[in-house]
């Protein structure tokens, strides 16, 4: 009896924003393909994920938007969970780290390591503190100039330009992303996980697959960039001149000075929480616990013992946490299995550029579903295009034109065309009943001038099915879906070579027609099974067209067994359902609504491209030269006052100008301002501004302008108001 348990995890998405297509391609789609396939093999599988809901980023967004952290996480947990479900991502449990069961699981894990006595060290250090926001800063919320390459937007833990791992104190001219101000260093006490203790066994495990003499995985199945990145952390370097060592693993702080998160459950931990990268991977364990509670399962059998196969699906930016930090935590705890594989993908780009939420260069998953709401193939159209461009070993690129071409020229023209012909011909020739055919019937083979029997063709199909299986089990999903399409292409060629439509006209009872049609229906049945991990919606629709029961666990093994025995997957006399198109083309010139989808996406991309170009031009723009020095007496002559815009309107024949009415408390002023290209009039009613109140009046477009509103330019080149940060009294002087 096979007692092996397969635990599959996908990286916990951070619940402070919607997920984009790069996230889907990086972790969730590959993990879903793998989990679905193992279920089809009849394996005992639990596939878990959930929202990562702690850390500084949540509190920062909450402060910036005037919301509570709970409101933020509820919004994005629900949005991402629903979106995953709509795209067919088949989690057994999609949990959340705010779950009380997770808090207890993470705290118990921490306390077990504390009890070990030598897995932590508690030490005092200096960390950056934002005085304006009154809190310590997480590494990702400190930016500055990279000391290695000079990139001006490097983060406190890594420079995304050159890839160098950094600490916040290495940054040149550091500043807080919260207030924009320079943070100060303050002393604080934290628990440091002794990663340095685990370097040697981790090196052996990563490179040889062996721990304590036991073979745990085959390193040949691990991706080169995963092993390479691990070794860059694990290997120590020696300076040939000085003999000094550098690199290698160091103790890592796993507590933070925050109130939002899981409280540190030991004496001295008051006011501190577990670092999000310590508690988040434990979320895989707590999600399994929650699933086990709800399904009367033993959660420990999926995490502990020699019969566990644990596989983490992540993006390459999470390799260090899943291949070094979390395995070290599991090993230190002592009771847990280590990952069999971490098939981390590289990054998916959008039209040749990195996805960037901050710069607006992004297609979010829920936005895609909204845009394609009326399109019947929208889920599998996206899944297919992403699988074909998966960044498995190098960065990939999602392009809108390629998306349409992959769908229409491959999915529709190959798989859709085959199914449409098979269903229609079976209905036309045999009233929808599968014809009987002997395995010895000879038909024309795919090579010109050759023939084969139905039995020999079945052996070819078995080989193709086994290739698809091998690809999936090696995490080569691009090759796997190519193997799927090769099965469909094989059937299309056989149909085209044998031309049953021609033979049937002269000989309706021909064995060749019966043979090729029986084989074609068998292949359609193979595709209804083999397509399910990749294209679950298509698989279900095809099963319905063939009048077959929904797929069950183990059906892939049944498929292989039948093919080996030369039997029928679908019996002679079985009646299939009436024809229905499996796919609708996107680029259908007869359907204006589908063409509108193409135009909509192209327009969106053009807007994004223009926005990116403007941002780049702004970054490269030379700063304006500082004007000649003025004296303090000159400066004090300017009277700055706070005012509120109470009315705004466009000025005829003036594209750039708005007429503003500004309340100064003691009087009302009319000001003409050149901001019409940046703001709609109704959007700025109630905006507090800084007004140069003693500027001599000037007539513009027939209107007397009684002052000037102060404006500044942001990174995108948009004018923004320079005004008080808090609500001020109208008419108040700025000193």
UniProtKB/TrEMBL annotation:
- Describe cofactor binding as the record notes it: Binds 1 zinc ion per subunit.
The name on file for this protein is: Methionine--tRNA ligase
- Spans through the membrane: none
Classification via Gene3D superfamilies: HUPs, Isoleucyl-tRNA Synthetase, Domain 1, Methionyl-tRNA synthetase, Zn-domain, Nucleic acid-binding proteins
Q: Which GO terms describe its biological process?
A: methionyl-tRNA aminoacylation
Q: Which family does it belong to?
A: Belongs to the class-I aminoacyl-tRNA synthetase family. MetG type 1 subfamily.
> Which InterPro entries does this one have?
aa-tRNA-synth_I_CS, Anticodon_Met, Met-tRNA-synth_bsu_C, Met-tRNA_ligase_1, Met-tRNA_synth, Methionyl/Leucyl_tRNA_Synth, MetRS_core, MetRS_Zn
From what organism does this protein derive?
A: uncultured Aureispira sp
Which GO terms of the cellular component aspect does the record hold? cytosol
Query: Can you give the residue ranges of the TRNA-binding domain?
Result: 634-735
Motif extent ('HIGH' region):
13-23
Q: Does the keyword DNA damage apply?
A: no
Q: What is its main location?
A: cytoplasm
């Amino acid at each position: 009896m096979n007692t092996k348990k397969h635990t599959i995890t996908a990286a916990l998405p951070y619940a402070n924003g919607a997920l984009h297509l790069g996230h889907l391609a990086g972790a969730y789609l590959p993990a879903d393909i793998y989990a679905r396939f193992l279920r089809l093999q009849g394996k005992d599988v639990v596939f878990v994920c959930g929202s990562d809901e702690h850390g500084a980023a949540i509190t920062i967004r909450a402060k910036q938007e005037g919301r509570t952290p709970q409101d933020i996480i509820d919004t994005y947990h629900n949005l991402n969970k629903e979106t995953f479900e709509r795209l067919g991502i088949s989690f057994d449990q999609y949990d959340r780290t705010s779950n009380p069961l997770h808090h207890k699981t993470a705290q118990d894990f921490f306390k077990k390591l504390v009890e070990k006595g030598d897995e932590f060290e508690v030490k005092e250090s200096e960390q950056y503190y934002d005085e304006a926001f009154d809190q310590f800063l997480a590494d990702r919320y400190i930016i500055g100039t990279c000391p290695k390459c000079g990139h001006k937007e490097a983060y406190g833990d890594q420079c995304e330009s050159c890839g160098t791992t950094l600490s916040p104190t290495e940054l040149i001219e550091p500043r807080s992303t919260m207030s924009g101000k320079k943070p100060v260093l303050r002393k604080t006490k934290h628990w440091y996980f002794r990663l340095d203790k685990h370097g040697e066994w981790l090196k052996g495990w990563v490179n040889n697959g062996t721990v304590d003499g036991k073979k745990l995985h085959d390193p040949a199945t691990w991706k080169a960039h995963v092993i390479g990145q691990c070794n860059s952390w694990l290997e120590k370097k020696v300076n040939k001149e000085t003999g000094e060592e550098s690199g290698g693993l160091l103790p890592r702080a796993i507590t933070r000075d925050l109130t939002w998160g899981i409280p540190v459950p030991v004496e001295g931990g008051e006011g501190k929480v577990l670092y999000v990268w310590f508690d988040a991977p434990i979320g895989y364990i707590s999600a399994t616990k929650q699933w086990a509670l709800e399904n009367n399962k033993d959660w420990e059998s999926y995490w502990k013992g020699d019969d566990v196969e644990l596989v983490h699906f992540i993006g390459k930016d999470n390799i260090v946490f899943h291949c070094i930090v979390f395995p070290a935590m599991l090993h230190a705890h002592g009771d847990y299995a280590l990952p069999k594989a971490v098939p981390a993908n590289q990054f998916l780009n959008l039209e040749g550029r990195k996805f960037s939420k901050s710069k607006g260069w992004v297609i979010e998953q829920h936005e895609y579903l909204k845009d394609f709401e009326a399109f019947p193939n929208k889920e599998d159209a996206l899944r297919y295009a992403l699988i074909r461009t998966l960044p498995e070993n190098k960065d990939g690129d999602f392009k809108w034109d390629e998306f349409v071409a992959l769908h229409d020229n491959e999915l529709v023209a190959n798989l859709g065309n085959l199914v449409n012909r098979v269903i229609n011909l079976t209905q036309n020739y045999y009233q929808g009943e599968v014809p009987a055919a002997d395995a010895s019937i000879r038909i024309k083979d795919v090579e010109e001038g050759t023939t084969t029997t139905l039995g020999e063709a079945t052996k070819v199909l078995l080989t193709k099915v086994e290739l698809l299986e091998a690809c999936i089990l090696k995490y080569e999903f691009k090759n796997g879906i190519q193997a799927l399409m090769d099965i469909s292409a094989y059937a299309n060629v056989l149909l085209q070579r044998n031309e049953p439509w021609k033979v049937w006209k002269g000989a309706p009872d021909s064995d060749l027609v019966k043979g090729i049609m029986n084989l074609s229906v068998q292949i359609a049945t193979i595709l209804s099974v083999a397509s399910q991990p990749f294209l679950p919606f298509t698989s279900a629709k095809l099963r319905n067209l063939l009048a077959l029961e929904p797929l069950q666990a183990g059906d892939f093994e049944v498929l292989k067994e039948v093919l080996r025995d030369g039997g029928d997957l679908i019996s002679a006399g079985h009646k299939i359902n009436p024809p229905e198109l499996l796919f609708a083309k996107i680029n259908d010139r007869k359907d204006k609504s589908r063409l509108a989808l193409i135009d909509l996406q192209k327009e969106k991309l053009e807007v994004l491209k223009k926005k990116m170009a403007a941002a780049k031009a702004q970054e490269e723009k030379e700063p304006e030269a500082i004007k000649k020095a003025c004296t303090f007496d000159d400066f004090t002559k300017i009277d700055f006052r706070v005012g509120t815009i109470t009315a705004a309107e466009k000025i005829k024949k003036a594209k750039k100008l708005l007429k503003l009415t500004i309340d100064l408390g003691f009087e009302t002023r009319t000001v003409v301002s050149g901001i019409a290209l940046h703001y709609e009039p109704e959007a700025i009613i109630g905006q507090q501004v800084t007004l140069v109140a003693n500027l001599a009046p000037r007539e513009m477009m027939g209107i007397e302008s009684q002052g000037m509103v102060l404006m500044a330019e942001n990174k995108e080149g948009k004018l923004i108001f320079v005004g008080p940060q808090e609500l001020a009294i109208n008419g108040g002087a700025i000193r």
